[in-house]
Amino acid sequence: MSCSDPRMLSRGMFLYSNSPEYNIIRFMEQARNWLQSATSVVALTGAGISAESGIPTFRSPGGLWKQYKPEELATPQAFAKDPRLVWEWYDWRRTVIAKAEPNPGHRALAELERAKPNFTLITQNVDGLHERAGSRRILKLHGDIWRFKCSDCGRDWPDRRTPLPKLPPHCGCGAIARPGVVWFGEPLGEVWAEAEHAVRESEVLLVAGTSAVVYPAASLAPIAKSAGARVIEINPEETPLSGHVDISLRGPAGELLPQLVGHAPGLP
Ligand code: NAD
User: Fold this and answer.
1) Active site (annotated) includes residue 142
2) Is the pTM value of this prediction over 0.85?
3) Residue-wise pLDDT tens digits, 242-266
4) Which residues have any ligand 1 atom within 6 Å of their CB?
5) Would you say 249 and 27 are in contact if contact means Cβ atoms under 8 Å apart?
């Protein structure tokens, strides 16, 4: 199932039963009913949920930094070759993120966590906006841009300075520090098993703001589906997942998530 312009939802108007607007209301109602009756809910988010906070997504035209693609910078090989260049990109990203505020999409998920006895937020984002919106149980698949990790002794520590005074930063042991994020080609670690367990146990999986092309995160929705969960996607664009979910709602997470989780019994 898929549908078109979600902005029609908020306007009081007569709708024909075969119109796209009627369909989106029907799909939204269905999605709200599933959410309302579920006790075990998981949300999976990607860069798109922070787009309305002013943080460019990775694959949008505004996501380009200088002439580099993120995929060319976010690798252990790129860091080994030119740590200063990679750090310049992260320093720029940290500066953009530091100015951003959580948006209604982040806040709706924090409210959903408070309303549901068993709720897990799995995010691919490293920006920290979910915590700032009030989410508490978060599985960060790709790490945290506000932490550093020593490339030699493995120590990791928080650092929120923007811009950084010296690039690349160093650990107390003298080795170069790296951002506390997971790069392409690196394993996700223990968090992956927790994420997989959470989606297998979920009754409803909400997938918001991800292009669903980066693995293994992109496999969480198919895993949830095969374990019997209802999967609801929120994205203004069609993704490789769209044809395989139960409901695909087209629109920005900052508009649709509050509509989806707000003002219903059992929901915030
Ligand atoms: P993405 O940029 O690939 O996709 C963003 C998605 O959000 C798109 O499908 C887009 O249509 C959608 N979107 C845009 N605006 C939206 C809105 N307002 N509401 C809802 N959706 C919206 O981001 P992704 O899917 O998160 O990418 C996967 C992961 O790849 C990233 O989360 C990141 O962890 C990883 N990655 C990491 C690095 C790194 O530096 N470590 C670099 C590149 C990618």
Assistant:
1) yes
2) yes
3) 999 999 999 999 999 999 998 555 5
4) 46-49, 51-52, 57-59, 70-71, 74, 124-125, 142, 181, 183, 208-211, 214, 234-237, 239, 252-254
5) yes
